[in-house]
Design a protein that fits this description.
This protein is an alpha/beta fold and about 475 residues long. It is about 25% helix and about 20% strand. Helix 3 (about 50-65) runs antiparallel to helix 4 (about 80-90).
């Protein structure tokens, strides 16, 4: 019979969302938490999504700016240097530092795949064999999301977003099969800069369909100016690849591939599937407690079970997931200790930025409805705005003589502001140095920041902020 360990809270998934739930559920109390992860602590954002994608896109944006800036010679992207920068920011995909961060807060880090096996009970299968965790108060599903692969493409070993951000072998010809979303347009940007001939197949009539139409239009024009072939109203109906094989993440998965569309065939060396993601709920043992994924997404859960982040079906954005995780963690702690939960603002705005050229931004309410878009052209001109004039209230600058006071508690949308409405000096200095190209901000260099300024724990770093180990070839 497997050994059972008891904790107050068991969190399944140690990405940024899971880390925040565990921290806020026990910090300042005598409660205990176990944080279970089957891959890397820090999750998708740290190693496969937010961090590497922005590391790849920033030099491209700088080079684009020089093309419009008088007095500066136009810069060119250096592919090997671009990949080296990406490697630096993911820290060799070594999560030692993030495990150390969790353990430093009193969180127990547990390696292995976790499944529900009963009420408040989780079975973890890892190198040491299966063992059980029992939660006195709450189990939290923070398992994130996984890419959707259309059936016509499933058998050709297509690239997913992980392959695009972890690219080590740049395909000469790349077809991006998409619905025209964020992953597609950002990946098309850096893959074109790395030298691929990129073709983007868009099912609809515009890119970024959730934003105002003009936003997708200007992004499409910018991609086309970079040599990207954008084809609208084109759907993939089939795919052929005689020599499909799993060669590892970021490498070309076999021989040439033929994508069959409703407008003819497209030949390529690799195909990237960017058709969206769905909550990762298929292998977490919901059936053992009489639940289905639909129960999770519609909130039909017992009082001891919670879902947060991408796994909940809410806005699939890391910053929103972390905010919701902090609210949930505090609510769990309040219920367990008998105190009242901290106040939570009603209808918090959910901002989003698409890092294309030009960059696009939008805001929506916390129910996922309504967008207000903004596109800023680099190298001159003002922002192109749509929707309500001015800023949402939570983002407006204080007027002369006015002070902005953040709400009581740590979970509010202004939790990174001082009581005079400004960010702390250390955080402002860090941002300024980062914008000036001085390297990673202090949080990534290992400096200790107050809790409210800590985001995802940084990867392990060696002396002078360098990665603890160089990135070697990554394989599945």
């Amino acid at each position: 019979m497997s050994e059972t360990h008891e904790y107050d809270v068991v969190v399944i998934g140690a990405g940024p969302v899971g880390e925040n739930v565990a921290q806020y559920a026990i910090e300042g109390t005598d409660l205990t938490a176990a944080l279970v992860e089957g891959e890397l602590y820090g999750g998708e954002c740290s190693y496969w999504a937010c961090i590497p994608s922005k590391a790849l896109l920033r030099p491209i944006a700088v080079a684009d700016t020089t093309a419009h800036l008088q007095g500066v010679a136009t810069a060119e992207v250096e592919p090997e240097g671009l990949l080296a920068r990406r490697d630096f920011w993911v820290g060799g995909r070594d999560d030692t530092g993030q495990v150390r961060w969790a353990e430093g807060l009193g969180i127990t880090a547990v390696r292995g795949h976790a499944r529900l096996v009963g009420e408040r009970e989780v079975e973890v299968t890892g190198e040491g064999g299966p063992h059980r965790l029992r939660a006195r108060h709450a189990v939290v599903l923070a398992t994130g999301s996984e890419p959707v692969v259309p059936p016509p493409l499933a058998d050709v070993h297509p690239w997913g977003s992980r392959d695009a951000t972890a690219v080590t072998e740049v395909p000469g010809r790349l077809v991006v099969v998409v619905g025209g979303g964020v992953v597609a347009v950002e990946a098309a940007t850096w893959m074109a800069a790395l030298g691929s001939e990129v073709t983007v197949l868009v099912r609809g009539e515009t890119l970024l369909a959730g934003q105002e139409p003009f936003a997708g239009s200007v992004v499409a024009q910018a991609l086309q100016a970079k040599g990207v072939d954008v084809r609208f109203s084109t759907s993939a109906t089939g795919c052929r690849r005689p020599d499909a094989r799993n060669t590892g993440v970021g490498r070309v998965h076999g021989g040439p591939v033929t994508v069959v569309t409703d407008d003819g065939e497209v030949e390529a060396d690799e195909v990237l599937v960017a058709t969206g993601r769905h909550p990762r709920l298929g292998d977490v043992g919901l059936d053992a407690v009489g639940l289905t994924p639909d129960d999770v997404l519609e909130g039909r859960l017992p009082e001891w079970l919670h879902a947060v982040g991408d796994a909940s079906g809410e806005a699939p954005l890391t910053h929103w997931g972390k905010y919701r995780a902090r609210v949930l963690g505090d609510a769990i702690a309040a219920a367990a200790t008998g105190r009242g939960p901290l106040p939570v603002p009603d209808g918090a705005p959910v901002p989003q930025v698409v890092y294309t050229d030009p960059a696009g931004g939008a805001g929506r309410d916390d129910r996922g409805g309504g967008t207000r878009g903004r596109v800023r052209r680099r190298g001159g001109g003002g922002p192109l705005r749509a929707g309500r004039r001015g800023r949402p209230a939570a983002r407006r600058r204080p007027r002369s003589g006015e002070t902005r006071r953040r709400p009581e508690g740590r979970a509010g949308p202004w939790s990174n502001l001082r009581r005079d409405g400004r960010r702390p000096a250390a955080a402002r200095r860090d941002d300024r140095d980062h914008r000036a190209g001085a390297g990673p901000p202090a949080a990534a260099r290992g400096a200790e920041l107050p809790r409210r300024h800590r985001g995802v724990a940084a990867p392990a770093r060696g002396p002078a902020g360098r990665p603890a180990a160089p990135l070697t070839e990554v394989s599945r």
